[in-house]
Write a structure and sequence with these properties.
The protein has 14 helices and 14 strands. The chain has 399 residues and is α/β, with parallel strands linked by helices. The strands form two sheets. Strands 5-4-3-2-1-6-8-7 form an eight-stranded mixed beta sheet, sandwiched between helices. The protein has a six-stranded mixed beta sheet with strand order 11-10-9-12-14-13, with helices on both faces. The protein has two domains: 146 residues, ATPase, nucleotide binding domain (Nucleotidyltransferase, domain 5), CATH 3.30.420.40; 188 residues, Nucleotidyltransferase, domain 5 (2-Layer Sandwich), CATH 3.30.420.40. Helix 6 crosses helix 14 and helix 7 packs across helix 8. Catalyzes the formation of acetyl phosphate from acetate and ATP. Can also catalyze the reverse reaction. Homodimer.
Length: 399
């Protein structure tokens, strides 16, 4: 079975074709500048060098046609015809309360995804366009929606309700939803395998740290709390997002800077976080270089970030009455030993202790706990595409 995984952004499209017999990626790529002059695909077939395919892609349907052509081309392809694609798995950002797991896409599911556009106005429309394009170009091929929010639907009311008038929840479903769910699900399952235990027997705090970042409390394989909320703006300070703040700050900035509410939210989403505090960069690699050069603002910013991650780890340890492991994943979590150590130094009270030599790792699975540590500290690289492909396979196998 070959599963095509599609992740549509507003002007981009990432894809992977995975042979589910051995879960091997046989082709992958990125369509860039969709609807913009200079659009192109960077396509990589297994065991071959990447190639650039230039060509105007006015919309996502055209981009997916380019992807299919690249997959079946004698020069760049890995399959002989589109019929060799058994199913398509789509990353969908928001499923609201409608979906607690991945699902085969039909008209009812499409309507439910459209109903969530208000909750994810930047993402769900692009996801819908990608699904419709695949349906048009591959009629009869099963399409599966895998929701970023679904994994967090196990959160209890005490975790997902906001302390605002309950009628807002009743009328608008105003609540915490959480994101990065596909990543948190994959990492929790892989952590259990790595430790040789059942996920049902573990209490984990997973730190998905990158330009977008979230922490998740997973008890027995189920999400019981996570840092992102109604939108991805809540929680940790991130690359350009503010994370948690006093809600009155929104009105304060609007009054002082003569901005509209929409403009303030734009500032909090795109000009804040570590970029806003450091005034250097949203890229943590730049901040680490600046720290090495003695830049005080960079050092304060990195301290702020690690401190906030550690606070949530501690809070989630309390929520679960203890933890078995703190797990780091995603671009920053997998590659920055500095950030991992800075977070873990706050967690000695949980029995976390870092082995500095083991922590000198990048992008590999690693237990970097010291010998006497009572709580494991791990690096487990995420693989959202594989999780999407697995969910897709499971559903299609049962058709």
């Amino acid at each position: 079975m070959n599963v095509l995984v599609i992740n549509c952004g507003s002007s981009s499209l990432k894809y992977q074709l995975i042979d589910m017999r051995d879960e091997r990626v046989i082709a992958k790529g990125l369509c860039e500048r969709i609807g913009i002059e200079g659009s192109r695909i960077k396509h990589t077939a297994a065991d071959k060098d990447a190639v650039i395919i230039n060509g105007y892609m006015p919309d996502h349907k055209a981009a997916i046609k380019f992807v299919i052509d690249a997959l079946v081309s004698p020069e760049t392809g890995v399959i002989k015809s589109v019929d060799e694609i058994t199913a398509v798995g789509h990353r969908v950002v928001h499923g609201g309360e409608n979906f607690s797991s991945s699902t085969i896409i039909d008209a009812t599911v499409m309507n439910a995804i459209r109903d969530c556009i208000d909750l994810a106005p930047l993402h769900n429309p692009a996801n819908i366009v990608g699904i419709e394009a695949c349906q048009a170009l591959m009629p009869g091929t099963p399409q599966v929606a895998v929701f970023d929010t679904a994994f967090h639907q196990t959160m209890p009311e005490k975790a997902y309700l906001y302390a605002v008038p309950y009628e807002y929840y009743r009328k608008y479903k105003l609540r915490k939803y959480g994101f990065h769910g596909t990543s948190h699900k994959y990492v929790s399952l892989r952590t259990a395998e790595f430790l040789g235990k059942k996920v049902e027997d573990l209490k984990l705090v997973i730190c998905h740290l990158g330009n977008g970042a979230s922490v998740c409390a997973i008890d027995g394989g189920k999400s019981i709390d996570t840092t992102m909320g109604l939108t991805p703006l809540e929680g940790l300070a991130m690359g350009t997002r503010s994370g948690d703040l006093d809600p009155a700050i929104v009105q304060f900035i609007a009054d002082k800077e003569h901005l509209t509410l929409k403009q303030v939210i734009e500032v909090l989403n795109k000009q804040s976080g570590v970029l806003g505090v450091s005034e250097i960069s949203s890229d943590f690699r730049d901040l680490e270089d600046a720290c090495d050069a003695g830049n005080e603002r960079a050092m304060v910013t990195m301290d702020l970030f690690a401190y906030r991650v550690a606070k949530y780890v501690g809070a989630y340890a309390a929520a679960m009455n203890g933890i078995d492991a703190v797990v780091f994943t995603a671009g920053l979590g997998e590659n920055s030993g500095v950030v991992r150590e800075d977070v873990c130094k706050y967690l000695n009270f949980l029995g976390v202790k870092v082995d500095k030599d083991k922590n000198k790792c990048r992008g590999i699975e690693q237990d970097f706990s010291a010998e006497w540590a009572h709580c494991k500290s791990l690096v487990i690289p995420t693989n959202e595409e594989l999780m999407i492909a697995r969910d897709t396979k499971d559903l299609v196998d049962n058709l």
